[in-house]
Specification:
heterodimer, A: 91 residues, mainly beta, OB fold (Dihydrolipoamide Acetyltransferase, E2P), 5-stranded mixed β-barrel, B: 118 residues, alpha+beta, 31% strand
C-alpha cells in the first residue's frame, strides 16, 4: 500500500458499466513525511475521500478485493483516509 | 518476499471495512546487508512486529493470503519477524566488483560516455 494525496477528480461518461457510480480520484504518491513523490495514479474511491486528504491506496489485483470493487476492472483503490503517520526518529 | 525494517506506523479511522482491525506499519525495504533500499511502503501486519524490527514482507495479491480465509484488501503484508540472517558471499564478489573500474581505462575510446562525462 502506498500513501498518497488526493489532487483531483476524473470524470468519465463512457466507461465500463461496472465502473458506473464509482468515484475516480487522481492521487499523487507522497512519502511518509508528506513530500510529493513522482507520478500520478487514478484510483477508485471506496471511503469517500476528499480533495487534499492523505489516503491509503492499494494497487494490483488486491485492489479488487476492496468492498465495493469486487469483480470490477480496478487496479488501484483508495481503502483508507490517513489520520496520522508516525515515524521512529532514528537518523 | 522481501526484507524490511519497521520504521513507523499509520493511523486511519475511516477505512474500507475489509481493513478493519488491522495494524498498518511503515516498512523500509532493506538489502541483505541491512542497508535501506527503495521507497518506504505501508504494510498490514500479520505478526505483531514492533518498531525497528527486521521483518520480511510479501507483495501483491499474495499479501492478503496471510489472513486467509478473511479477505483483507492489502498488497503488502508483514509475514514474519527475522531472528537471524546468514549470508555467504561468493568468493569472487570482490574480484567482480573491481572489474568495471579497471576496464574503462585501457579502452577509453570505446567508452565515449564515460570519457566525455569526465
Amino acid at each position: 500500500m502506498i500513501l498518497a494525496r488526493v489532487v483531483g477528480t476524473v470524470v468519465a461518461t463512457r466507461k465500463d458499466p461496472r465502473l458506473e457510480g464509482k468515484k475516480l480520484l487522481v492521487l499523487k504518491p507522497v512519502s511518509p513525511e508528506g513530500k510529493d513523490e513522482s507520478g500520478y495514479v487514478v484510483a477508485v474511491d471506496t471511503v469517500s475521500a476528499g480533495y487534499r486528504e492523505t489516503v491509503l491506496a492499494v494497487s494490483g489485483s488486491s485492489a479488487r478485493m476492496a468492498e465495493g470493487c469486487k469483480d470490477r476492472p480496478v487496479d488501484t483503490s483508495i481503502v483508507g483516509i490517513v489520520d496520522n503517520v508516525s515515524l521512529d526518529e532514528k537518523k | 518476499m522481501y526484507l524490511g525494517r519497521v520504521v513507523g506506523r499509520v493511523w486511519s479511522t475511516v477505512k474500507n471495512e475489509c481493513l478493519e482491525g488491522h495494524r498498518l506499519l511503515i516498512v523500509q525495504p532493506v538489502t541483505p546487508e541491512l542497508k535501506d533500499t527503495g521507497k518506504r511502503i505501508v504494510c498490514t501486519d500479520w505478526t505483531g512486529a514492533g518498531a525497528g524490527e527486521l521483518i520480511y514482507w510479501v507483495r501483491a495479491r499474495e499479501a492478503s493470503f496471510a489472513f486467509s480465509p478473511a479477505e483483507v484488501v492489502t498488497d503488502a503484508t508483514i509475514v514474519a519477524i527475522v531472528d537471524e540472517l546468514h549470508i555467504k558471499r561468493p568468493p569472487l564478489a570482490d574480484a567482480r566488483g573491481s572489474e568495471p573500474t579497471s576496464e574503462p581505462r585501457p579502452s577509453g575510446s570505446g567508452r565515449a560516455r564515460s570519457g566525455s562525462g569526465a
